[in-house]
Design goal:
single chain, alpha+beta, four-stranded mixed beta sheet, two-stranded antiparallel sheet, 7 helices, 48% helix
Length: 205
């Protein structure tokens, strides 16, 4: 059975030939950049906080040295990518410094606003990087990941959060969700694999 993800479809929409090189010829033309490096590090940092926040206590989560964790993950992920791709990994020291400063500001803002986005009362963390895997027509599957999945134990509602580096204007988000491009308005029902006894998740992506 064939598989398709958002990243695959976005790449094909932008350049079918590049998609062919990566997914048919297996040449792996994309080696990553400062955005993917930064995104991975900030995801890992915030997700480490949320695991402690929901599974232990708020005080313990607040005591985590998030800036140090972010700095460490940024450097370690850089080393891994450099070891894999060498000079083909186009990230410079000035970029690292700029995005490190961006990350520190994001962490500061996140801590100020966390209770508004991540309620603790009657809420459980279903998972981090939760896998999506469900069937499509023509013997295809859609695969992807949800950054953070929360479950309200009173209402039964599930909240899916996608962590982004920058704010998205409400008008732009509504326009995107209302469009058909990239399946922005596809509703899904899937299973949280290997987490919390395979509870069902229904949402929108």
């Amino acid at each position: 059975m064939g598989k398709i993800s958002y990243s695959q479809f976005a790449k094909w929409d932008k350049c079918p030939y590049t998609w062919k090189l990566d997914y048919v010829d297996k040449l792996n033309t994309f080696k990553g950049n400062i955005y993917t490096l930064f995104g991975t590090a900030i995801h890992e940092t915030i997700q480490a906080y949320l695991v402690c926040y929901y599974e232990r206590t708020i005080r313990e989560a607040d005591d985590l040295p998030l800036v140090d964790i972010f700095s460490y993950r940024l450097k370690e992920n850089f080393k891994i990518s450099k070891a894999q791709h060498g000079d083909e990994f186009p990230v410079t020291l000035p970029e690292m410094k700029e995005f490190y400063n961006d990350g520190c500001k994001i962490i500061e803002e996140f801590l100020k606003r966390k209770s508004g986005y991540f309620p603790k009362k009657n809420t459980e963390l279903l998972g981090i990087e939760v896998g999506l895997d469900f069937g499509l027509p023509n013997n295809m599957k859609f695969v992807g990941y949800m950054d953070v999945v929360l479950h309200n134990k009173n209402t039964g509602r599930v909240k899916i959060i996608d962590i982004k580096k920058e704010r998205i204007e409400i008008s732009k988000a509504e326009q995107f969700i209302g469009s058909f491009k990239f399946g922005a308005s596809i509703f899904f029902t899937g299973t949280v694999r290997d987490l919390n006894e395979n509870k069902k998740v229904t949402g929108i992506t």
